[in-house]
């Protein structure tokens, strides 16, 4: 019993001594911590850094360099970002414009497609024929969807000038300036507001400005300009088939006019608009102007010596009205294409061949509707000088226009027509022969 009690005492004493040492060590640590806190308030190594000034200066200079470098880099970066932003803004504007243009074209294509589908339905859908004498075929083609992107500058001009989407258009260079003066004067006297001169050189531009005449100058085109500025009457006349295309694409009905024409009334009051092409005729009577059955006689054929032919005198390519339809545009394309390649051809002959030649082996004819204008209202100079001026009743008629197409002395005859129809001078037409001397 005595043994265990003594061992327990020894153990308790050792534990007590160990605890005292730990407590003493903790106390010393706390005292040292307080001393260091008082002596070194900024830390044990702070004075070392302060005691080495070159080290601090190196750090400061490096820091300043970094700050300066960062500032410089920031300025350059800002400038770069501004430039990039400007480029992106410009690119964004271009993209917006492209999207807008594509959207407009898509809408136009959808509208055109809708019209095409409607036309197919009208033309292609099987229909039951009505009673005898009541069946009528389709005569009037739908107009094209206007496309202002073709020529925005021209579109703005036409928007101001045209009346009910129609206007008179004439091409002129300085070679025909004297006739253009009479042409413009007659249009103004007739009270026609919707007319435009396509000025082919600077002389005509100056004339139009001086006389308050609406005009349009085309963008430079080497292939056209050489003819436009130096060409004669026939050469300039051939250009119209290329130039008029944009007018139709923009959705305008065009009354093409040569400048050797005197206007007495407003022609738009006398146009039917039921065909792709309405044209005045070179015919001099009802048969030649509107067509007739001409019998060809070949005696060598015996019983079959007589062959019947259909004839009509040509349409005048210096005065015709085009509705803005696909067949009318195709007509312009066909004529322009043929005139641009050899052999040289007369535009009026080509104009009529494309209008009247039917489809046959190796050739697809133009499917365009046609109307011949009243020969007394839209009068050529052969009708006037050979027939009308010699008939007391016909002299009382008031034509819409007189086209001096049959005579080379155009200017004096134009002035005489003005005197006769505007100023009432009854003998103004008498000095001239029927034909050409």
TrEMBL record:
InterPro entries: Nucl-diP-sugar_transferase, Nucleotide-diphossugar_trans, RRA1/2/3. It is a single-pass type II membrane protein. It is an enzyme of class 2 (transferase). GO terms for cellular component: Golgi membrane. The chain crosses the membrane at residues 21-40. Residues 78-119 form a coiled coil. It comes from the Eukaryota. Its EC number is 2.4.2.-. It is found in: Golgi apparatus membrane. Keywords: Cell wall biogenesis/degradation, Coiled coil, Glycosyltransferase, Golgi apparatus, Membrane, Signal-anchor, Transferase, Transmembrane, Transmembrane helix. Residues 192-411 form the Nucleotide-diphospho-sugar transferase domain. GO terms for biological process: cell wall organization; root hair cell development. One of its GO terms (molecular function) is glycosyltransferase activity. It holds the Pfam family Nucleotid_trans. PANTHER family: ARABINOSYLTRANSFERASE RRA3. Belongs to the glycosyltransferase 77 family. This is Glycosyltransferase. It comes from Centaurea solstitialis. The lineage of its organism: Eukaryota, Viridiplantae, Streptophyta, Embryophyta, Tracheophyta.
